[in-house]
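Fill in residues.
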């Protein structure tokens, strides 16, 4: 059995991690107090853990924590601290998604400036590389998404590599976002989207056929759709799977089974933390738990640890340097 020291030190890359899900409760409470934001009880009463029983409650905390990040320096500090925390567990590369629409009090350029400053500090001090995904909140609809993509394009930045689509999968079908994805693609951005975690495989097919995504975030519903499964095994489009779920133990077991089945089916899959502070485990803890449950040997561990680099949207020279 692989030791935790080995798995912690192993250089790892991940591509599915939400910035606002990287804020520890103590930091969230400090920011909320500073800016006069009321956090839900689950963010106030759990000490060093967030307390929630299902995805909706988790998302409610996520949005409240997002609302507590209101200045350029809040973004700088959260980005810096989250990357350093990852690097302490062997993280070498992270693609960070964030939701500008959940921070209406701050201009896009200011948020980005803070995030990129934090990323630069973490790169210099902890040797962790990063890129940014601007994530669309699907609950706010296609028009707002299009406006967001226009804003992204108006502020071109080398570190901003892609757009994503997240928040409640049951609140907005991918087909609503065709115009936003077309515009982003024309501007040279890469495309990813959450699908097949809470929604069914038809949403994943829409992501492939209508949004023409370069990657699928989650995607467990492919296991229930033989056509989609064989299609994506053949295409080898990357899936960014997440090892832990945020709610009861039964669902964690189900997730472990899904991830194991995806790998066994031959999908091009990498392992990610999703929301390390909100859910609890950092990326190295995902690897420690996965190694134990999937009975990895050294070869398996090394392959999984860098599979995020096969799925990532950084330039080739950066990827080669990290390999
Ligand atoms: C998220 Cl796991 C997940 N799914 C959708 N939206 C999200 N935002 C933060 N974490
Ligand atoms: Zn996610």
């Amino acid at each position: 059995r692989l030791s935790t020291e080995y798995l912690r030190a192993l250089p790892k890359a991940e591509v599915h991690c939400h910035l606002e899900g990287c804020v520890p409760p103590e930091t969230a409470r400090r920011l909320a107090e500073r800016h006069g934001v009321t956090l839900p009880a689950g963010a106030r009463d759990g000490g060093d853990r967030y307390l929630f029983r299902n995805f909706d409650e988790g998302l409610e905390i996520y949005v409240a924590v997002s609302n507590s990040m209101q200045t350029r320096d809040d973004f700088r500090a959260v980005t810096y601290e989250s990357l350093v925390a990852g690097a302490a567990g062997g993280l070498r590369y992270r693609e960070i998604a964030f939701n500008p629409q959940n921070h209406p009090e701050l201009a896009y350029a200011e948020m980005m400036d803070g995030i990129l400053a934090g990323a630069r500090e973490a790169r210099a001090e902890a040797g962790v590389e990063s890129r940014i995904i601007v994530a669309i909140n699907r609950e706010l609809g296609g028009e707002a998404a299009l406006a967001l993509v226009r804003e992204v394009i108006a502020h071109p930045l080398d570190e901003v590599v892609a757009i994503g689509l997240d928040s409640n999968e049951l609140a907005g079908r991918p087909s609503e976002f065709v115009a936003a994805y077309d515009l982003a693609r024309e501007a040279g951005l890469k495309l990813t989207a959450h699908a097949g975690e809470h929604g069914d495989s038809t949403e994943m097919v829409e992501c492939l056929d209508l949004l023409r995504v370069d990657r699928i975030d989650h995607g467990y519903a492919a296991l229930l759709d033989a056509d989609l499964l064989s299609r994506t095994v053949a295409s080898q489009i990357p899936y960014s799977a997440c090892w832990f779920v945020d709610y009861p133990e039964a669902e964690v077991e189900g997730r472990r089974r899904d991830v194991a089945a995806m790998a066994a089916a031959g999908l091009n899959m990498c392992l990610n933390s999703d929301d390390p502070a909100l859910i609890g485990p950092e990326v190295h803890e995902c690897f420690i738990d996965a190694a134990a449950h999937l009975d990895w040997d050294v070869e398996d561990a090394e392959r999984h640890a860098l599979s995020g680099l096969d799925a990532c949207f950084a330039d080739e020279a950066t990827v080669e340097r990290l390999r």
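The radius of gyration is 18 Å.
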